[in-house]
Amino acid sequence: MSIVSMHHAVMKVTAVEDYDKVMAYCVVYGLPVFEPKGKSWQRVEDATAEMLKNIEAFPKPLNRGASYYKSLLTHTASK
Q1: Residue among 39, 32, 8 nearest 49 (CA)
Q2: 15-26 tens-digit pLDDT
């Protein structure tokens, strides 16, 4: 396995872990759940960011942090 493949595998695993935490929170509290628009880790991160948009302060630690996901929203909005 190459370094690039390993990098993508780690990024996917941590993105899915964060997505699962945020999705479970949204289900419990009746907030909108967004499905990833693809299978790549970037699409999983985008879905997580969309869900976090509805949460002022996420109560659990995320692998990348809520501020990282919120920065994705501002980055995509400026395109």
Answers
A1: 32
A2: 999 999 999 999
User: What token pair was written down for 42?
Assistant: 């970037």
Q: Look-up: residue for tokens 């929170």?
A: 25
Sign for the pseudo-dihedral over CA of 19, 17, 62, 40: negative
HSE at residue 37, side-chain half, CA atoms within 13 A, is 5
Query: Cα(1)–Cα(60) distance, rounded to whole angstroms?
Result: 32
- How many folded domains does the chain comprise? 1
Chain segment 8-67, per-residue pLDDT in tens? 899 999 999 999 999 999 999 999 999 999 999 999 999 999 999 989 899 999 999 999
Task: Report the alpha-carbon distance of residue 9 to residue 22 in Å, rounded.
Answer: 20
